[in-house]
């Protein structure tokens, strides 16, 4: 956070090395505060949760390359939400690839979006108040049937 940029690194598992690849860095909206990202199962799309402006940005991979370009952005909180003390934390694409989830701290909710499998476009389904204060992270159980949240 602070650069409003996603930095890309090449990971060499054989050598155990990480190499910065600034030519693939992605500039995000000024003041957005990109925090975490997750990939769709087919790796055609990446979803970035932005801590400061409470949005999820959709990135689409340019065919036959390692470059991702922004295609859309959607709010993680309902319209007219009092944004005082609200920020985001974690993002996860469901193992099925059909849904994307993001946690809202201060709003104490999980934003749930359906995902168009072709375009990657997100549509808000629900903002579920989960009874956990300031949810920082969450995960799915191996079956994909349960979401576990920590706050």
Question: Any key phrases for this structure?
Answer:
151 residues; mainly beta; 4-stranded antiparallel β-sheet; 14 strands; globular
Question: How would you concisely characterize the structure shown here?
Answer:
With 151 residues, the protein is mainly β.
Describe the fold and architecture:
This protein has one domain: Methylamine Dehydrogenase, Chain H (7 Propeller), CATH 2.130.10. It is 0% helix and 50% strand. The protein has strands at residues 5-6, 9-12, 17-20, 26-27, 34-39, 45-50, 55-61, 68-75, 87-93, 99-105, 109-115, 122-129, 137-140, 147-150. The protein is globular. The chain starts with a strand and ends with a strand.
CATH architecture label name: 7 Propeller
Mean pLDDT: 94
Q: What is the share of helical residues?
A: under 10%
- What are the secondary-structure elements, in order, as H or E? EEEEEEEEEEEEEE
- Main beta-sheet annotation: 4 strands, antiparallel
Helices and strands in order:
Elements: E1 5-6, E2 9-12, E3 17-20, E4 26-27, E5 34-39, E6 45-50, E7 55-61, E8 68-75, E9 87-93, E10 99-105, E11 109-115, E12 122-129, E13 137-140, E14 147-150
Antiparallel strand pairs: 1-4, 2-3, 5-6, 6-7, 7-8, 9-10, 10-11, 11-12, 13-14
